Amino acid sequence: MKSNKAPTIKDVAKKSHTGIATVSRVINNSGKVSENTKNRILKAIDELGYTPNLHARSLSSKKGNSISLVIPDMGEFYGILYKYIEKNLAQMGYRVIVFPLVDEISLAKIKNKADLIYQTDAVFISSLSVRKIFKDKIPQKKLILVDSKDDRFDSIYIDNYDIGVKAAEYLLSKSKTTEKYLLISFKELENDFTSHVFKYRDEGFLDTMKKHKKRVKKIDADLYWDGGYEAMKKYSSKNSINKSKVNVFATCDMLGFGVRNFFNEKNLLPNKNYNLIGVDDIPISKVIGLTTIHQPLELMADNAVGIFKKFLENKEKKITHKKIESKLIVRET
Amino acid sequence: MKSNKAPTIKDVAKKSHTGIATVSRVINNSGKVSENTKNRILKAIDELGYTPNLHARSLSSKKGNSISLVIPDMGEFYGILYKYIEKNLAQMGYRVIVFPLVDEISLAKIKNKADLIYQTDAVFISSLSVRKIFKDKIPQKKLILVDSKDDRFDSIYIDNYDIGVKAAEYLLSKSKTTEKYLLISFKELENDFTSHVFKYRDEGFLDTMKKHKKRVKKIDADLYWDGGYEAMKKYSSKNSINKSKVNVFATCDMLGFGVRNFFNEKNLLPNKNYNLIGVDDIPISKVIGLTTIHQPLELMADNAVGIFKKFLENKEKKITHKKIESKLIVRET
DNA sequence: CTGAAAGCGCTTACAG
DNA sequence: CTGAAAGCGCTTACAG
């Protein structure tokens, strides 16, 4: 009867009548090993059902072969980002470990210095503020920001102020003088999760509208699928929505979704009764014909991985800041 | 000038004039340590910015303090499941590492015996077939199936055949003799990702309809936000949709979403012109008023973690099969 | 091409 | 309450 414990490299060595160093070589495909011994070892590995212990490997090699990806929530948007990053890194033999900051518990875990996140070779942080998350105890790791910016760290980012400007210009191009302008946005709470992306989008939009002497009514909405709907409902209860065209900037597609729903329900038509633009270009936006501002996730992922690669190669200390252009996608609304 | 390397337990011991065993004790809060030495050690840890090496810890303690969660994709649905599992496990000091099988690459990684997944203390598999994923090389780990069933492993599952039955009964209760019945479903490819959930839902629905002598038109759809829409468009190009009421079972809410969109666009009304039921009860379903069959994710997560807890306690070998009841949620459609 | 040995940074009896 | 020492399963010079 076999022992219950998982077989180790020692067991493999014994069974194949070699030393552990040689076994290690064939496992890692490093160094020269004769065909004959190699086959003996492979056979033993197979028969034993041997699996290398990653902890031992990492401990002795000083490499984790993994990176962390910190994201604000686990939804479709970040799923896409994950996919692009994973695709790149998998080829390099790296694992990407996801850390969704879904609640206070997961935030607390990350702040604990004994957490897994501190064992990975680099930390990719998406859409979140390093300062807020880690406070003063920033991990002594390679940090790469994706979709946000911090002077102290490598950053791949999009100019959110510019997004607001683009949204304003789109709506202005579609409208005449006497129309109404609405800004439906999420009012971020000042806590550890705050990213300020909404704030910047708001500002870009508001500033541009002011420049064109347009008055804008701002409405706070919940960051949820019906957030935009409820905001519009509230607005329409005090303002007429049929008299003149309404132009709406929803600062993310999730909010845009709700707004679109609202207009549909009232049988109001895009271009005629309203215009609407969102941000993100999540998959569902295409389906509902929502005009939006696209965030090039693939490009961001590629750039982030590129920085990581360079880091691995020559440990260069220079910090890279790469700005990615967002793109207007005109659809029905 | 300080050394570049990360401080180890040895450095802490030296700085606090103790042994590494004692340092280990205060880090892990185990055993008795006098207040005085404890404070000295804590101070040293803080000054050094010491972080325990998890690989070393796992290697010597034989515990990973983590579990794997394998999911078919990274979207809102599994995000919710993750959240519930994580909430439970975090309190126990465990990390949950997500393995989204988004493409062939990620599948290949999992099959590699050297993968991270084999280092965790247990593997939770959601909505996927163990047989298909791991083939004959099933990991010698505690496997817990969430939302699927396998006689060989602990399973928390929902009866998908029964879901089909429930959907049929709902539509029958809303309809009269002469009406039309549509089944809009995803035709699973026979590959490693196949879970057969759709197949069982189809069967439960079809069998029940047959029992009631109703003819059903089945339409294959893409598993995407506009899958249901396209399916309906195809159907309506050859069949009238206005004459008599149409009753549709979309085998998941994502498909139901598209169907609902289609009817909206045609200005057709629920209960009057059509009835529609989906499955899953994803957040967006509530917003669009989609009648659906709810999957109790929280309950499933709790049960799965419960099994894991028992496993940790007494290493019991008995396999648990727990069936969870799905629940009809009636909304507008 | 191959193997014995040191060492990675911890935990855990063990002895005091 | 405390510390020296063995051991976890690997990788990597080093010597052959």
UniProtKB/TrEMBL annotation, chains A, B:
Annotated Gene3D superfamilies: 3.40.50.2300, lambda repressor-like DNA-binding domains (1.10.260.40)
InterPro entries: HTH_LacI, Lambda_DNA-bd_dom_sf, Peripla_BP_I
Occurrences of domain HTH lacI-type (ranges): 7-61
GO molecular function: DNA-binding transcription factor activity; transcription cis-regulatory region binding
Domain of life: Bacteria
Keywords: DNA-binding, Transcription, Transcription regulation
Bilayer-crossing regions: none
This protein's name: LacI family transcriptional regulator
Organism: Geotoga petraea
Phylogenetic lineage: Bacteria, Thermotogati, Thermotogota, Thermotogae, Petrotogales
